[in-house]
Write a structure and sequence with these properties.
Chain lengths: 161, 266
């Protein structure tokens, strides 16, 4: 019983360190803010091709993350993809004529939706749709087009003209 | 010809006995577990029992967990840097270190260390109690050794394991940070921000904790059962201790595969 206080103190320190490590992992290593951003409002956008966009991909405006892609599904009437974005509560004033583009972070990085604000006075509300969109750039298509153009201007063609 | 048939028969007999033994042992382990789980009411009534056990099972494993966590994190930092720098992606070092620690290495390596450090000690202690008839003496005094001896040890192991795994991962991240940012010159802001972007609380950290709880149950269960089920001789105890380390390491690796397949298949 002499040691019982010592043992209890050591166990107390042990559990405190364990819980502190868990807290550190959740605060410093992961992004706790991602949970908070889930209670935002949802806007959607139609794209012909979403490329490598995934659920939880970032939605950025001027390079700042203001939300996440919350759902991706196909519109079976128009045969295009619909991306639903959950936008953080704090960004209430997105103009109604905002345009959405899908960009790639770096050459091989992940894809994200970039919002370019328009000039209208009315703002997007929950469930609204962004009308002006441009699709993801598919690298294979560009390479294919480039090769096609190259083939079109081979020497024989040039000499024939 | 007759001799051949006899040989076949005795071979089949041995196989059958082996199978029966195996399933009997498995069944005994589960009944044993049910009694231990029922022992929670005694454990809750005598809270200091579990405190003492967390001390010997968890707190005394602290040093080995912290030291190995640091070194695993540092090695991840070095190796990851050498590979990533070829692609000019050394800023992703934080992501690599944190994800591999939180998802896999933290729970698995700390469970393996836990099996070697604490599991073997549990088996040896309980086995020796059985060999010196302390457990029988308790039964004579109408004290249920499953509730008084085994249950506190089991719950202490289950509580300690996730804490140890969390410490391992946290210390490992700082080990990787030390090597990556301190020695190799990765940008500090990119190290943390990319890590925070990529690591998710529910997907990665929460699943890592679930993994370590499962490993804690498996390792401690095997350790206390092997101790309780040991042949009460010195040779029996040594065999039981070996079996604890081998079986619980295999169980951890096998369960890890199953859990990873269930959690991270997108």
């Amino acid at each position: 019983m002499l040691q019982s206080r010592f043992v209890e103190t050591v166990v107390g320190i042990f559990i405190a360190i364990g819980l502190a490590s868990l807290l550190m992992l959740s605060m410093k290593v992961s992004n706790l803010s991602s949970l908070a951003s889930e209670d935002g409002y949802v806007i959607k956008a139609h794209f012909q091709n979403i490329g490598g966009l995934k659920v939880r991909s970032p939605v950025k405006m001027a390079g700042v993350v203001i939300g996440r892609v919350s759902r991706i599904y196909i519109d079976d009437k128009a045969y295009d993809a619909v991306a639903e974005m959950s936008i953080n509560e704090n960004f209430k004033s997105i103009p109604a004529d905002t345009s959405a583009d899908i960009y790639t972070a770096g050459l091989l990085g992940e894809q994200y939706i970039s919002l370019k604000p328009g000039g209208e006075e009315t703002f997007l509300k929950d469930g609204d749709e962004i009308k002006i969109t441009s699709d993801a750039v598919v690298l294979e298509e560009i390479i294919g087009q480039f090769l096609y153009n190259k083939a079109a201007e081979t020497p024989e063609n040039k000499s024939g003209q | 010809m007759i001799k051949f048939i006899h040989q076949c028969q005795s071979g089949l007999e041995r196989l059958g006995r082996y199978g029966l033994d195996f399933f009997e042992r498995l069944g005994r382990a589960h009944i044993f577990m049910a009694y231990v789980l029922l022992g929670i009411k005694d454990v809750l009534r005598r809270w200091e029992l579990i405190i003492t056990q967390i001390y010997s099972v968890g707190a005394l494993s602290f040093v080995i967990i912290v030291v190995s966590g640091t070194f695993v994190g540092m090695v991840l930092g070095l190796q990851g840097y050498n590979t990533l720098v070829d692609f000019g992606a050394e800023e992703s070092l934080g992501v690599l270190v944190a994800l591999s620690l939180v998802r896999e290495l933290g729970p698995v390596v700390s469970a393996l260390l836990f099996a070697g450090r604490a599991g073997s000690a549990l088996t040896a202690e309980i086995g020796l109690m059985k060999a010196t008839e302390q457990l029988s003496a308790m039964e004579m005094m109408a004290v249920d050794p499953l509730h008084r001896v085994i249950a506190p040890r089991f719950y202490a192991g289950v509580i300690s394991m996730p804490l140890l795994a969390a410490m391992f991962s946290a210390v490992g991240v700082f080990g990787g940070y030390f090597v990556g940012v301190g020695l190799l010159g990765v940008d500090e802001g990119a190290f943390w921000s990319q890590m925070q972007d990529a690591v998710e609380l529910r997907e990665d950290i929460f699943n890592g904790v679930i993994k370590s709880v499962v490993f804690g149950v498996a390792v401690t269960w095997i350790a206390v059962f092997e101790g309780y089920d040991t042949v009460p001789t010195s040779e029996g105890i040594s065999r039981a201790t070996t079996r604890t380390v081998v079986n619980s390491s295999l169980a951890v690796l096998g369960l890890d595969f199953i859990l990873t397949a269930l959690m991270f298949n997108k």
